[in-house]
Structure prediction request, 415 residues.
Amino acid sequence: MQEKTIYKSVKKVILLLAVAILSLSIYSCSQKHEHTSVLGGKNYSIYILGKNGKEYIIETNALDSGKILPEKQGAILDVKTMDRDIIVKDGSYYHLNRKKAQLSKYNIQNDSLYTIASIPLKDFSIENYFWAGKDSLLLTGLDIKDFTQTKYVLIETGKMSMLSSGNLAIPQPSGKFTSMSIGFVELRKSHLFIGYTYHQQLSSSNYTTSDTTYIAELGYPQMKLLKINKDTRSTYPGGINTVQSYSFNDEQNNYYFMSCPGIALGNRPDLPTGIFRIKAGAESLDKDYFINISSSVVKNHAYGMWYLGNNKAIIRSERKDLFKGLGDHYSTAHFEFYLIDLAAAKVLKKLDLPLDKGTRRECVIVKDNIAYIAVNSSTKGNFVWMYNVETNSLKKGLELAGNTDFIMRIDKLNP
Prediction:
């Protein structure tokens, strides 16, 4: 399995390294011109990479039991046009086809993926998405030539029409830094926060990242740069959230995000993975808050974070004693899941789950005090496990069998 990224320059290096890590899969598209409503459809979507390289989307109403064979119950996807860096909402899938330079909206009909509508999106590489309203999709990204110019587009997804677009006044990389990445976007009334950092290419097969996390604050919707905050406690804030989640708001609207300096993303393993906070109503980082994951009982780097509610979260961390390097980072079962107490700013415990594989995956859904956790185990199969937040108990749920090699992502398809 290989992972594609959208980097060039330094991002080309990230691509070359990540190509050995994960397979960003690619979908099948048949076109249908008339809009078909899918609201009231299935509850969940599952993206599968098969043992023979085939890829599927499965829609289901239940994750707590049963067995699914993707080759019999899934929509097979065309690996030449689509991949798993998708946005899933209200029964539809959104994906940027980089070859055609267009963003398309899809749904599943009669076990096939149909194109509902498309909109041109030229010279744009998606780094992050944010739902600014029910049908208002804000995309932030970079130019595809050098990955140095930050950009945005605001799209009305009902009609798939462009509301606004333009460049962002975030400083471009300079000096030894040759490209950049955007790791999170958070909108608070008329203030937009964008987390980012810069990258340096060391050789044709290696790169590194600045030691600094940057957060730009812009006026919204004018997109005027107001100020930039910096923090050197960790780097590579967040990540591409069409692939995996790294941030959330709690019930009080405190905003949390994870930094990812490990070898699979920032490649600054000398810096710790950490969890940062922007307090509700604040316009800058909470300088007194930082959960150092790498110096905790985890003692490793982590990638991916999901909110459980009531100040608890789950992170997914690597085991550096079990893999050799980037070459086997995705294929070796070495990932563990840990429970975090955000209020106490500490790691509580490791969940008693099988070791997981796949470097970056959207693998946690939380609903009604149950965390559904997709695990790719080399010894115990591919299952969705259920963690009961109230009783602190775990049990197996849905099995993905047959041609399943990796569960690449699970999503809430309909509310």
Observations:
- DSSP finds three helices and 31 strands in the chain.
- The CA atoms of residues 373 and 398 lie 10 Å apart.
- The radius of gyration is 20 Å.
